[in-house]
Every structure is written in C-alpha cells, then in structure tokens.
Design goal:
0% strand, globular, mainly alpha
Length: 233
C-alpha cells in the first residue's frame, strides 16, 4: 500500500507548482526549509489521498513520513490525524508517541500547523502537559512551533494558561516563524478571552518582537492597535 500511495502522489505532481512552493517555503541555502523537495501537489488533493489511504498502519506511515518529499510527509500527517480521530485511548497514545518520535520529519510550518493541535493538543487536553514545555525550549525550531501550536486545542476548549506560559518562554525566540505562531495563538486567546490576552500584552508588549505583537493585535480596532504599536498603552 505504501508504494501505491507514493505512485498516486507522483501522478498528481506538478513541476511548475513545485518550483513555486519551493520558493514559498524557503528551501534555499540557509533558509528555514533548506533542502526540502516538493512535488507540487495541492493540499486539497493530498487530503483526498489521505482519506483514501487512512488505513495505513504506523509502520507504513513511517516510510512516508521519513520521505524527502514534502507532500509525502504532509500526506502521512493528514492520515495520522484521520487515524487519531477514529482511535480508542490506547491507539491515541500510540499515535501521540509516534508523533513525538518523528518530530525530525515534521519540519516545516504547514506540517506543524495541520497536525500539532489535532494530535498532540487533543491528546494532552486531559493529561500532563510538561512535554510541551520541553519542546518549547528545544533547539529545534519546529519542536518549538509544535509546543505553541498544540495549545490551539486548549484555546478552543477555553483553556489559556499553557498558551500564556509557553508564549512567555518564547518571547525572546529569534525566529520569525515563532513570533508569528505565538502572536497567532495570543490573537486566538483574545477571541475567547480578551482580558487574558490584554493582561499578557500589558505585561510584555514593550519587549515583544514586533511581528509577534502585530499578529497578536491584528483584530483590535485601529486606535488600540496604534496605541500598542506606539507604546502608548
């Protein structure tokens, strides 16, 4: 079945689109996606393939997730999300453990964003969350992004404490992709509980990376955005 899914994805490949994606996902030397290789397949098409092959066992998914091709890895994660939603508690633990062991291959922002809260965030809703704090201080950029993006599931369930704590751990992160992710999660927190977001901002806005702040206040009215950006709160 693994060979069949690879053939099907290859059939969907679009070389012209692949060139665009390799620029979009910064695959050049020294960029965050350095060396990543694309086939040029739309996410919507990958979702169809994932649904068709959702019966793949983890051993087969390992072969897809460890591929050099970006779409192989993304499709494997989309399958993993489908499997997770249909699993019992024991199977969910097995999938979460599989995810933790394979963060090396979850190595671009779309791979993280389409899987972290659906698997890790959901799994940790009623469990100890210390693993996220270990990921948040990892030297691996993508593990740090997994840590903050997993909290999206908590936010959806009106739980904000871990988003705030992990955001504080990442305040001085040097990478723009972390600034954006943290700002995004703060913005989502504000949609549910503006007081919690504002308390964070009033404490940290002067020291936040500008991109992080801009993302966090994106939905504020113009005057409030301006006041934060001009340090006049």
């Amino acid at each position: 079945m693994l060979n069949q899914i690879k053939k099907e994805l290859q059939h969907l490949a679009d070389p012209d689109r692949a060139k665009i994606l390799q620029k979009f996902f910064k695959t050049g030397k020294g960029q965050y996606g350095e060396g990543d290789v694309f086939l040029g397949i739309k996410v919507s098409e990958q979702r169809k393939v994932a649904k068709k092959y959702s019966g793949l066992i983890l051993k087969e998914l390992q072969g897809l997730l460890s591929s050099r091709y970006h779409e192989h890895r993304l499709t494997s994660l989309l399958i993993l999300v489908i499997k997770y939603t249909k699993s019992d508690e024991a199977e969910k633990k097995e999938i979460a453990d599989f995810y933790y062991k394979n963060t090396t291959y979850i190595n671009n922002w779309d791979l993280v964003d389409l899987s972290a809260d659906n698997i890790i965030g959901d799994y940790l809703l009623e469990r100890d969350r210390s693993v996220l704090y270990r990921l948040a201080i990892s030297e691996n950029l993508w593990e740090r992004r997994i840590a903050i993006m997993a909290t999206f599931r908590f936010i959806k369930n009106n739980q904000f404490k871990d988003t705030i704590k992990i955001s504080e751990l990442l305040l001085r992160d040097e990478h723009d992709l972390i600034h954006k992710a943290v700002g995004w999660m703060l913005r989502e927190t504000g949609k549910k509980d503006m007081a919690t977001e504002e308390a964070f901002l009033k404490k940290h806005y002067k020291n936040m990376p500008r991109t992080m702040l801009r993302y966090a206040i994106e939905k504020f009215d113009q005057d409030r955005r301006r006041s934060y950006l001009k340090n006049l709160v």
